[in-house]
Amino acid sequence: MARDRITLTGLRVHANHGVFDFEREQGQLFIIDVTAWLDLSPAALSDDLSQTVHYGELAEEVVAAVASEPVDLIETVAERVALVVLAHKPVDRVEVTVHKPEAPISVPFADVAVTIERTR
Fold it and tell me: What is the rounded average pLDDT of the residues 95-108?
């Protein structure tokens, strides 16, 4: 398994996920962190973008996945993102954290997040 990584931190997406009607209607901020494990040596040795994952395009794909069809759970959002990342053949492992800093919680808090890890 590869030890090299590409990391995207703090992707910000306004989306309409949640179990409450007002979350679906008004939407809220979600912050996404992604770490993709892959062998970066072919790209490093050849200086060829086609030998790696284009992180700019990956960021756009992740944001589109999060902004798509609303779901109840951020666990589902995380799974959706993991599938997008693993669709890139060089990636053999991914860790996804979905933060929901505006979650409807009745006590003061800094963040709510779920983190999943998936392998090919």
Answer: 97
Catalytic annotation present for 89: no
65 Cα distance to chain centroid: 8
Strand, helix or coil at 88? coil
Assign residue 17 the CATH number of its domain: 3.30.1130.10
Positive or negative, the CA dihedral 38, 56, 75, 101 is positive
CA separation, residue 40 to residues 37, 70, 112 (Å): 9, 34, 32
Of 17, 93, 99, 100, the catalytic one is 100
Structure letter (DSSP) for residue 52? S
Which of 35, 21, 46, 55 is CA-nearest to residue 96? 35
Q: Which residues form the domain of 64?
A: 5-119
Going by C-alpha positions, the residue among 31, 12, 117 that lies closest to residue 74 is 31
Total domains in the fold of the chain: 1
Mean pLDDT across the chain, nearest whole number? 97
Alpha-carbon distance 67 to 49, whole Å?
Answer: 27
- pLDDT at 19 (0 to 100): 96
Q: Residue 9 is encoded by which pair of tokens?
A: 């931190």
